[in-house]
Please model this.
Amino acid sequence: MFPLRDYDLAATLGCGQAFRWALRGNALEGVVSGRWVRLRSEGPNLFAEVAETPPDWHWLTAHLRLDEDLAGILATFPDDPAMRAATAACRGLRLLRQEPWECLASFILSSTKQIVQIRQCVQSLCERFGDPVAAPADAGPQFAFPAAARFAAAAEPELRACKLGFRAKYLRDAARRVAEGELDLETLRGLPTPAARERLMACFGVGRKIADCVLLFAYGRQDAFPVDVWVLRALQQLYFPKRRPSKARLQRFTETHFGPNAGYAQQYLFHYMRLAAGRPGAAALTARSW
DNA sequence: TTCCAGGAATCAA
DNA sequence: TTGATTCATGGA
Model:
């Protein structure tokens, strides 16, 4: 059990930054660092159920960023109407601290796919290529996220069987680079964001947006601001309703306007736009939305 | 049916 | 540099 303050667990795990969480009853089940876990938030407490008692809980507390001071972060957001509305609508939404390979691989699958489809692809890949992990019988078979070497060794048709489409060759290319050490995801931690971004974008199929997702969701880089179709609409409609700046111009605007926690602000804008469009990742939490 | 989805590579101008 | 096209697949 962990204290939980100012933390919307359902929004955090369902807002489209991670793809392995499933809603079962009032609990969220997923696999983190090769461990199955069932999470349930009740008032000020978070209850975590695992299959095998771990030596410590850092793998979970770090992943969920349980020690982070949300109020301090929200206080750094720009005081404009858009961010005030987004903060009011999404309060409690958190960023996770994901494993780089799983994050990179997942977002390679994400291009022009809906979040629900990305989940299905990730699920298929884990079932087909992942090692089984311990889980209670009522949770069903559970699998770890496959190592890069597993995808690198797979034939492209095997990957396409998981509905990857044209992204299959992208995943294989990145998997090969990681498996062979050409791309060392651990050394990226010590690099400045632009240099780390450049390394990621060297992968075939990884552009600015996917690289920024990995930099933000896995490495916690607050100077990474992924601009997808939703965030693009947010920037156009909420900040430049009259003019029609180019995407490059909007990207530059994000580099200066959103402050030291710009990445966090980005996720609030993203989730706010989806809520407004009636695509609840979490708020009006129903089985259908998952 | 038609449109669109947490894009990126490619090619034309 | 910028703009259109193509790439799979399935939800809404």
Confidence is low (pLDDT under 50) at residues 282-290 of chain A.
